[in-house]
């Protein structure tokens, strides 16, 4: 392990080329056929055995046994990368910018996949005290690919539909634009929020815009509903707790002089505690239905339960901190003060085994800021690749 950085440095040129190739050819959730093919090609070239076709068809599970046969039956360390892109028109101007119209890697999953391939390449040449499972999953961006992978047995080993020994502990990362490159950050407990989405239809009675008294105005009702929904955060949840209720789109009407029959709006609710999640859902239904009814309208709510809270196991997180501080130095390892209200389907792994998810710094040194996640000018910082690879390797090999 003493020369691990030299080993990584010798591979960086090729790994950057892989990252740029993946960035040039992004694929949406559950459509990652080419990306899956690249992963399979690279694992095969380095002699890492793998099982493909998981997670709805594009997921790949790589596996390296322990190097000491006496440890062959030990449970594995799991390392995860997500592979999908987003429906965003790229505006980076990079020479390797997306060639797929309206699709781009605006969340850095091209970097995550490259890091895990790099870790597999290095770990295939190192002593391994226990087996290592490499989980390349589809559809993190709203598709719940991690949930599908888990239900298909990706962590369960040969006997449960996976590959090799069952996974005992899990680690994953996400490139983070507000953390400086060379640094990492995380915290025990809740790190990312539960993500529940809603689609609401408010129905009234259509009428002429000049004669509103002949109808029931669903636009007026919707305006009151959206305003009232903010009372969940301001009046129903402790100021020391966290809840976000965001309406992201409202669709209504066809003309300036017609009060329409119905209005549709969509949005999301984010919470960090199971109790708050339950409360927010209950109050959402009460507020929407009551406010609509008070103005002569009715409400139909289509509720979509999303990802659970990404909850870092305390022991797994302390293991991460110990490994990261030894590798990078304490001044480059930060304990995140607050959870973020973004969501992550890495949470499904943490429901099954102790897990730790951490943020990998992307912000260029001495920069005040850089494009952030889901923005059209975002690009993964290649300078973060060696840090991510080294930590994945050390997490897999440190007892």
- Examine the coordinates and then state which fold CATH places here, giving the name of the CATH topology of the largest domain: Aminopeptidase
Strand portion: 25-35%
Give the CATH superfamily of the largest domain.
Zn peptidases
Overall shape: it is elongated
The separation of the N and C termini measures 13 Å
State the main characteristics:
399 residues; alpha/beta; Alpha-Beta Plaits; 2 domains; 8-stranded mixed sheet; 4-stranded antiparallel sheet; 10 helices
Notes on the protein architecture:
This protein has 399 residues and is an alpha/beta fold. The chain is built from ten helices and 16 strands. A hairpin with a 4-residue loop joins strand 1 (49-54) and strand 2. Helix 1 runs antiparallel to helix 3. The radius of gyration is 24 Å and the shape is elongated. The model has no long low-confidence stretch (mean pLDDT 97).
